[in-house]
């Protein structure tokens, strides 16, 4: 009887150790997945490419133009007035091969539903401080643009709701089609309620190993939601980060609260390391034409692979399943031990 009880206790002790190890492993895996979009570790923050309160870098590392107003709390690209354009640009070219930009912004104004415009654009381009017709910046640019479009121009494009966030890579030969809301040249996009929100709104742009990922956090949930994820994107180094906005017959306040650039620690092949990244031409290898990119009724881009929180949920379910099986096994084991006691 004593031998059986001691053996039972030893086995239960082993089970507790196993359960503790499983829980530690679960926490470790969750931490790894949560780091898919960088958690803002300051050791990877590139201050020379970042714009934060109280904006002391403006003038030394950032230039602004047009209607831009710099205060201690925000950078207002346009006021809530008609026919305004403004921009702010980093002076320092970026030579990082893999990076992630977090933008905190605010779009607000007195205009009622559908009576406001036009929106904000975030840029990574060869040239800077060139005012123009594309959300306050030049057309036929070289580089990447992320458009936060708040006004629908294409009255026939009713399959998507506005505001709408989209991405475009340009080699200098393509014009942005305002009449079609840039649909013919976009890489993908999603609808997002970004206007007149009472809480903070964020956009994350990640470029790593030829993959462009756009995430949004606009619902006050403190979590990223996938907007765009596409491979085959080629962007050179040595370009400039910036933001611009414009108003037309309709208007809004377009504010930038912060722009924080993080370096991603990624290994590259020797061939990639020896490549002159400044000579790369901006391009995208697509399996289908950008004009075929149509968002589904829920506002999410179709055909995106499992990334970010989708992987997180899959891992969470798998690991929880392991824990549940272990607990059930322990209960069965204990019942058998109690039944065997009757024979001692």
TrEMBL record:
Subcellular location per the Swiss-Prot or TrEMBL entry: Endomembrane system; Golgi apparatus membrane
Protein name (Swiss-Prot/TrEMBL): Lectin, mannose-binding 2
One GO-annotated biological process of the protein: endoplasmic reticulum to Golgi vesicle-mediated transport
Regions that span the bilayer: 311-333
Gene3D superfamilies hit by this protein: 2.60.120.200
Single GO cellular component term: COPII-coated ER to Golgi transport vesicle
Signal peptide: 1-35
Entry keyword set: Disulfide bond, Glycoprotein, Golgi apparatus, Lectin, Membrane, Metal-binding, Signal, Transmembrane, Transmembrane helix
GO molecular function: D-mannose binding; metal ion binding
Species of the source: Sparus aurata (Gilthead sea bream)
Domain of life per record: Eukaryota
The L-type lectin-like domain, residue ranges: 37-264
Membrane-topology annotation of the record: Single-pass type I membrane protein; Single-pass membrane protein
């Amino acid at each position: 009887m004593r031998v059986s009880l001691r053996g039972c206790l030893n086995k239960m002790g082993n089970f507790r150790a196993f359960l503790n190890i499983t829980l530690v492993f679960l926490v470790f895996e969750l931490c790894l997945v949560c780091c898919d979009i960088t958690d803002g570790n300051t050791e990877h923050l590139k201050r020379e490419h970042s714009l934060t309160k109280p904006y002391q870098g403006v003038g030394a590392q950032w230039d602004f133009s047009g209607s831009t107003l710099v205060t201690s709390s925000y950078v207002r690209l346009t006021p809530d007035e008609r026919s305004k354009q403004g921009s702010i640009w980093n002076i320092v070219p970026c030579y990082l091969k893999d990076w992630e930009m977090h933008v905190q912004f605010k779009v607000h104004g007195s205009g009622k539903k559908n009576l406001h415009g036009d929106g904000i654009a975030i840029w990574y381009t060869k040239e800077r401080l060139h005012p123009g017709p594309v959300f306050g910046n030049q057309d036929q640019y070289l580089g990447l643009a992320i458009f936060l479009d708040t006004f629908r121009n294409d009255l026939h494009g009713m399959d998507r709701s506005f505001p709408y966030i989209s991405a475009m890579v340009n080699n200098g030969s393509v014009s942005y089609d305002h009449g079609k809301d840039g649909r013919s040249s976009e890489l993908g996009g999603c609808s997002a309620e970004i206007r007149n929100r009472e809480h903070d709104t964020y956009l994350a742009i990640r470029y790593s190993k030829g993959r462009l990922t756009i995430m949004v956090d606009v619902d006050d949930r403190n979590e990223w939601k996938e907007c765009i994820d596409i491979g085959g994107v080629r962007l050179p180094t040595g370009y400039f980060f910036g933001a611009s906005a414009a108003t037309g017959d309709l208007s809004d306040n377009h504010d930038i609260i912060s722009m924080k650039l993080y370096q991603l620690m990624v290994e590259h092949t020797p061939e990639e390391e020896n490549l002159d990244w400044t000579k790369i031409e901006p391009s995208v290898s697509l399996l289908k034409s950008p004009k075929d990119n149509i968002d589904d009724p829920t506002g999410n881009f179709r055909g995106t692979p499992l990334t970010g929180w989708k992987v997180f949920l899959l891992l969470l379910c798998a690991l929880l399943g392991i824990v549940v099986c272990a607990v059930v096994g322990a209960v069965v084991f204990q019942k058998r031990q109690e039944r065997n006691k009757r024979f001692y």
